[in-house]
Amino acid sequence: MAETVEDVHQLDPRELWEHARSFEFWFGSVQGYLEGSSYGRHPEVPEKVTDPGERDRLITALCNYCVGETIALEGAGALIRVAPNRPSKVFLATQTVDEGRHLEVLVHRLLELGVRDPEAEIERRASPGLREFQRRHQELVRGEDWEAALFAQNVILEAMEFNVFQTHAQRADPITAEVLRGIVKDERRHIGFGENELGRLLSRHPAVRERLARVRRELDPLVMRSFEEAMGELGASEAERTDLSRSYLQAVERLGFA
Question: Domain 49-253: which topology?
Answer without folding.
Answer: Ferritin (1.20.1260)
